[in-house]
Amino acid sequence: LMKIMKSFSHIFLLLSTLVIFRGAKANLQQSYNVSSIIPAVFVFGDSIVDTGNNNYLVTIVKGNIPQNGKNFMGGKATGRFSDGKIPSDILVEQLGIKELLPPYLDPKLQAKDLITGVTFASSGSGYDPKTNVLLSVLSIPKQLELFKEYIGKLKAIVGEAKALEIVSNSLFIVLSGHNDIQLNPASILNPSYNELLVKFASNFVQELYKLGARKIGVFGVLPIGCMPLHRNTRGGLRKNCVDSLNEKAYSFNNKLSIEINSLSNKFPDAKMVYIDFYNFTFDLINNPTKYGYKITKNGCCALLGKIELNGKVKNRGNSTVKAVYSGADWDLAKASRSSGIWSIRDDVQIPSSPYFPTYAAQGQGPPPMVQERFQSVISQLFQYRIIRCGGAVDDDMANVIVAQLLYLDAVDPTKDIVMYVNSPGGSVTAGMAVFDTMRHIRPDVSTVCVGLAASMGAFLLSAGTKGKRYSLPNSRIMIHQPLGGAQGGQTDIDIQANEMLHHKANLNGYLAYQTGQSLDRINQDTDRDFFMSAKEAKEYGLIDGVIMNPMKALQPLAAAAEQS
Asked: Source organism's superkingdom (predicted)?
């Protein structure tokens, strides 16, 4: 989180310009009183902006542990997941409203606290009410219910007319989505989950509008894959960012931005803005010295710098937590206060170029807009039970396909699944994971070759339900024996050679069954690369038809395939 704070200097200036002053240039160092324009601040979200609501919940997700609050007033933990103030505190402080933003659930709240704003945020929560539901935290829908309760209390204090005036002139901040993306199983199993999250966020913003909110800032999510937690557990020896999580975060942000802009046009009497701090944060994480920090891969308070635990912690082997920490992170997911990232600074420039991973041997990845549209199309196809095996078959691809197959089986075991194959092949074990799952689930799996199905790609193509295996007319299909190498001592080489022979016998046996060819014929043909056209593959028995009429390809596939 510490990485976030510096970006908020510019984010806040943008927010004050767009939300408070409606487009006018603003300088918070000027002499006018911003608090006279913004009477209160209301914050909704997760641990980034939770000042202690979870202290009053029956949950294990609490921030009131010894190392938190190290640089806070009094040096005591308050429920904030940081060593000092967090963004919601610094926001109201910069606005001149009050020094700290209290949690709504604090039973000691006074009337003056309610009048000037509170935070409803809850650590561990998300837009999706099912995210971390077993932890008993406050999801965004639950936070909305508490805000409705708050309005009733405010009316009792200042009267209905004044209460509505306070709400309409106040600033509303929404910052959530991190836990949905990284912790909710649906984020992995459902390719359309980002669209669902955006719907949750949109409904929430519209509910705030119905309750009188007119100045709403909605933050995108951080580059989640760059959090120390994921870099330490999934980033390898070099503790790299986890691209798959960052891609999900970036995709969600794009969709959320479009939706908030749409809502802004829908409700012209309100000011609704999407606020991005992904790009700056990513640059800070990967170039910490550029912003005056030494490290961003570990938090200060992690057991051996790797796994963060609530309760007793050590500073990478030391028995106590250092009072001054020069890194950007406080723990493995939050930020320290020491660098003042959330303070107003005009000397820091936010990079404008968005992040997208570069893939080895492929140069720069596709532009973000292209990737975004591509992912959107894939999500739309998944809704129609269409999945893809595109690219090399490796563990990552296999895990996705297996999860998709299991999900579609659970949703409706009576409807076919269509898998398009365009693959040069890949790992035998990864491919067999997909193969076994295809046979394990209840729906028929129809396979369609587009472009190239070679090696394991051809094997999976032929593994579709018999009578429902197809190819487009200009595709190429190739089978051969497993490839590999061996090294080490003679015994090691023998072991690896025997493993290759096992895979060869196993694959060829299945190919013989799936094609109707004899095992001797399969052994002979796979001795070298054996390429076939779509028509030749049909004659060989790898597929059952060649799709000649794309307009009929999905209803049903058999109607579009040449059966002669």
From this structure: Eukaryota
CA distance 227 to 331: 10
| Cβ 18 vs Cβ 261: under 8 Å | no
Q: Which two tokens stand for residue 107?
A: 């039973």
Catalytic residues: 455, 480
Dump pLDDT digits (tens) for 307-338.
333 333 333 333 333 323 334 443 444 444 44
Closest to 309 (Cα-Cα) out of 331, 328, 330: 331
Q: How many residues does the chain have?
A: 564
Q: How many angstroms separate the CA atoms of 62 and 331, rounded?
A: 14
Of the candidates 137, 146, 147, the one whose C-alpha atom is nearest the C-alpha of residue 179 is 137
**β-bridge partners, 452:** 476
Cα–Cα distance list, 48 to 74, 205, 531 (Å):
21, 19, 56
Q: Are 94 and 344 in contact (CB under 8 A)?
A: yes
What is the pTM for the complete model shown?
0.56
Residue (of 7, 41, 207, 203) closest to 120 by Cα position: 41
Residue whose pair of structure tokens reads 């009410």 in the numeric block: 129
Task: Output the CA angle 158-163-165, nearest 5 degrees.
Answer: 125
What SS3 class is residue 47? coil
- In which region does residue 45 sit, left (phi positive, over 0), alpha (psi from -120 to 50) or beta (all else)? left
Q: Region 22-43: what's the mean pLDDT?
A: 57
The upper half-sphere exposure of residue 193, i.e. CA atoms within 13 Å in the direction of its Cβ, equals: 23
- Token duo for residue 294: 């030494």
- In DSSP terms, 335 is beta-bridged to 329
